[in-house]
Amino acid sequence: MTRITSPVAPEPRAAFDRISLRRLVSIRWVAVIGQALALLVVHYVLEFPLPLLPAFSVVASSAALNLFFAFHHRAATRLGERQAAYFLGYDLLQLGLLLYLTGGLQNPFAILILAPVTVAATILSRPPVIALAIFAVAIITALAFWHVPLPWRSEPPLFPPELVLGIWTALVVATAFIGAYTWSVAAEARRLRDAVAATQLALAREQRVSAVGALAAAAAHELGSPLATIAVVAKELARDLPPDSPHAEDAMLLLSQSDRCRRILAELTQQPAEDSGSPYERLPISALVEAAGELYHDARVRLIFATTGGLAEAEPLVRRSPEIMHGLNNLIQNAVQFARREVSVTIFWDATNVTVEVADDGPGFPAHLLGRLGEPYLSTRAGDSNHMGLGIFIAQSLLERSGAELTFDNLVEGGAHVVISWIRANLETEARSNAAAVNAAGA
Q: Would you say residue 177 lies in a domain?
């Protein structure tokens, strides 16, 4: 099994998820419209005197920048991470200037300084988010000391230094907490998305491998009749041509090659039956499990397959599902890699359940992390470029799609222990329904 010692960062992404310029411009247009309306309402409706000209100049700068992007960039343009960070950094600066002109931290709208940091935390990686958070804290600190007095109908109220300090503290803490929390949730979502994509790729690969056997059988069936005709014609030509004919040798060659093709097609026809290549074939559960582990026999580790208990019931016939095959492949492969001398795979069935247990004599799972097994990007081999900590995640995801429940624990004598269990009726019903569908298609 994949052994876990501590959560590790995922492998570096191949490329940063470039951000839509159109989306950022749309967010800025909302901010520009909201700022303009707020200035007009406060000045003309609530009758608080505002420095409209400089304030609207700041708002107009954002509008002008948006128009520049609209006319000089395609709507589908996507920004790199650094460009997106500069874009949001400008928004922080613009908002800081507007707050400077309208009372600084004493302005109730100072809470909006958190917006660009929150947006950055959802779309950017850690370094630019930290840089923008520091920039936001610097702006908040500057606004606490330098700003135009808060607009008021009469003499502006006096804010005690303790109150300003409290507002500054709240905004700084909110910037750090919301930025960190949002980035953590977004990063986890991205990791999970990548892990699910890897699972889907693994399933698609297993389905393609399974489909090859069925395709080979179909090809052999379709080519059998014309190839038999060619063989008959070649045999008649070889018989009718005189021995000294210049074409006699060609006729014999054609006959021998047609026989060779028939042997190859016969092998292709038998191979799916032997290897259970068809994803719709029903086979005993013990045969399916052994087929899943046949690639992982290791000279240093003994791989043992056994059935135990519950044998009064007939052995269930199940479909060679790509999900089950690939999931069992991963678990058996990991067990072999970490075992010292032996891996045992035990199959059990009764009237209600089917269970497969995979156990090894390796170091086992760390007890304090057993509850986290199945999460993506958790592996003691994460430093190896060939291992991303997705083995158990992919296995669990695929097996759960087949209706299985997985339990991870450690054996008393040492070693990892994984139990995969299905409700027997569900497995057999799926196998029968798929077999019926294939028969109907063949008819």
A: no
**Are both 336 and 253 inside the same structural domain?**
no
Spatial distance between the Cα atoms of 319 and 280, rounded to a whole number of angstroms = 6
Contact (CB, 8 A) for 410 and 367: yes
Please give the span between the terminal C-alpha atoms of the chain, in angstroms, as a whole number.
Answer: 44
Residue 359 placed within a domain: yes
Is 165 part of any domain? no
Give residue 287's Cα distance to chain centre. 31
Q: 405 is written with which tokens?
A: 């429940």
Give the type of residue at 312.
A
Report yes or no: 366 and 414 within 8 Å, Cβ to Cβ.
Answer: no
Residue 417 CA: distances (Å) to CA of 307, 335, 364, 441: 16, 9, 8, 41
Nearest partner of 255 among 227, 284, 234, judged by Cα: 234
**Cα–Cα distance, 225 to 81 (Å, whole number):** 61
Chain segment 316-361, per-residue pLDDT in tens:
888 877 778 888 888 888 888 888 888 999 999 888 889 999 999 8
- DSSP H or E run through 367: none
Strands (E), 61-182: 78-79
Tens digit of pLDDT for each residue in 26-70?
888 999 999 999 999 988 998 888 899 999 999 999 999 989 888
Check whether residue 340 and residue 381 sit in a common domain: yes
Domain that holds residue 230: 211-275
**263 vs 76: which has the higher pLDDT:** 263
Is 200 part of any domain? no
How many domains does the chain contain in total?
A: 3
